Backbone:
């Protein structure tokens, strides 16, 4: 009796908010991470469909499902840490779903994440991930290690695999400052939750190829903070130039990319004013050059 | 066959309350003070890692005296309650009042239904935009809940400490003043006149965390060096 009580206490002790939510309030989990029984029927992953019951929503090709998708995120290391930037567009098929969406978020004091893919699920996963990190910090009284955070995010993305197979994939990019090692680190993921540490710079989303090409030419080791911001904004400019789903800087509406810097003192958002100046300089230099491509 | 003795409900509850009070009286004191800069939480606690004071949510902190395993499980339950509530509604929908009432219910249930009551006393503090919007709740082992004004003192020597704190408290204190006052209160029942920084645990709920530092989470734990620096400040 004594032992079973002790075992029970140990089994119930968790520092993970996700585990707690799964146990106590599974209906609040992001779509892909919900237990099968609670998922809306149309979203049942292939192979789990009850026999002889094929709901209408499942017959539609999931690719044709019209939900907003987030697009390009770039991240790069610089002398003091790491930087992440995202454009402001979400698309739904050929329509612009949002010009204002923000896709780069602080995960906690020393890390940020950017999301590409199905916006609704990605925003839910982001919110869960933010609470997960804060919850661990409060329960344990200490911050999770950067690798620990990266692994937790991987587990959440892996949980979303059934959704990804239906065309509702979420692909994040994670960056943080590793305080014991004293450097900024970057992690990319695939839809199965595979976690890959990236060197120098990385991009995700529909415009990622173009942004990556730009970064290959613009990035240099030990960039200063200001130069790093300019490089990131220019890479997004190039992505927006060739990818219709990526939004460029918008001087008419005064919309600029969302840029976060993470260094030894924490994660801070680059102010709009600064970004307006950086974007203005890029647009001006391109206009002066009078080049077509 | 053995006959069970009749014990009146009054006697049963009195025995349980006495038992809990005895447990709490053995503990060292905790002082929670609302002041101009926010809310200061000061506990006499020589351990740097087994905390009596903890963060629950953006503006809410927790302080406890009594048995560590019991109040630690309540603290974790509080963090879970607040995080689930903030996740399912919104961050601003998490209030000290809601949390305190959940604590009161669980303490009350344990007091009447379990083999033994929890030997703990809790304080739940929420910092508001102005001192008169601060909330301080005191929760006792039987689930009683009290809305306190200005400050809370809990623990074995609460009466003596409380007297010392009440004599010096006013709403215009800053953090340095409030922490000095709390420390002066904590030594009221001792022969020494000062407590070293290593013998106390200090945390604050910073009223200006959002305006001054841009941080939503108001809770901040002070290191020994911070405490020494604060105490060295001249008022």
Residues:
């Amino acid at each position: 009796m004594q032992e079973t009580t002790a075992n029970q206490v140990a089994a119930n002790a968790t520092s993970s908010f996700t585990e707690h939510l799964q146990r106590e309030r599974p209906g609040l989990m992001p779509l892909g991470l919900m237990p099968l029984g609670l998922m809306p029927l149309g979203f049942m992953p292939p192979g789990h469909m009850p026999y002889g019951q094929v709901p209408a929503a499942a017959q539609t090709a999931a690719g044709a499902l019209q939900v907003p998708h987030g697009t390009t995120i770039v991240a790069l290391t610089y002398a003091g840490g790491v930087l992440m930037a995202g454009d402001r567009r979400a698309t739904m098929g050929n329509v612009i779903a949002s010009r204002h969406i923000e896709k780069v978020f602080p995960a906690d004091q020393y890390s940020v994440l950017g999301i590409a893919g199905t916006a609704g699920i990605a925003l839910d996963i982001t919110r869960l991930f933010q609470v997960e990190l804060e919850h661990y910090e409060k329960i344990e009284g200490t911050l999770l290690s950067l690798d620990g955070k990266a692994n937790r995010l991987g587990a959440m993305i892996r949980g979303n695999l059934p959704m990804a197979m239906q065309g509702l994939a979420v692909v994040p990019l994670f960056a943080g400052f590793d305080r014991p090692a004293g450097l900024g680190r970057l992690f990319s993921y695939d839809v199965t939750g595979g976690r890959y540490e990236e060197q120098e710079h990385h991009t995700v989303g529909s415009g990622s190829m173009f942004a990556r090409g730009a970064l290959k030419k613009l990035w240099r080791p030990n960039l200063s903070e200001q130069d790093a911001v300019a490089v990131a904004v220019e890479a997004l400019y190039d992505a927006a130039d060739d990818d219709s789903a990526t939004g460029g800087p918008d001087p008419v509406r005064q919309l600029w990319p969302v840029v976060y810097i993470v260094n030894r003192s924490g994660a801070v958002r680059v102010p709009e004013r600064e970004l307006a100046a950086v974007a203005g300089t890029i647009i001006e230099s391109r206009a002066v050059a009078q080049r077509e491509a | 066959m053995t006959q069970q003795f009749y014990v009146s409900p009054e006697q049963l509850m009195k025995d349980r309350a006495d038992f809990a009070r005895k447990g709490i009286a053995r503990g060292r004191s905790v002082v929670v003070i609302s002041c101009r800069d926010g809310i200061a939480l000061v506990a006499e606690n020589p351990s740097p890692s087994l905390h009596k004071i903890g963060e629950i949510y953006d503006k809410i902190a927790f302080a406890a005296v009594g048995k560590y395993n019991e109040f630690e499980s309540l603290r974790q339950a509080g963090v879970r309650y607040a995080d689930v509530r903030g996740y399912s509604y919104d961050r601003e929908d998490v209030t000290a009042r809601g949390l305190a009432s959940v604590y009161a219910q669980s303490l009350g249930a344990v007091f009447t239904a379990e083999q033994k009551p929890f030997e703990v006393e809790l304080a739940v503090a929420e910092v508001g935009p102005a001192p008169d919007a601060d909330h301080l709740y005191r929760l006792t082992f039987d689930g009683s809940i009290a809305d306190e004004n200005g400050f809370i003192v809990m623990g074995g020597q609460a009466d003596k400490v409380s007297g010392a704190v009440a004599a010096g408290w006013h709403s215009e204190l800053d953090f340095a003043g409030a922490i000095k006052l709390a420390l002066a209160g904590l030594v009221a029942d001792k022969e020494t006149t000062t407590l070293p920084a290593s013998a106390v645990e200090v945390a604050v709920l910073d009223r200006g965390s959002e305006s001054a530092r841009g941080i939503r989470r108001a809770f901040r734990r002070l290191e020994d060096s911070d405490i020494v620096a604060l105490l060295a400040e001249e008022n």
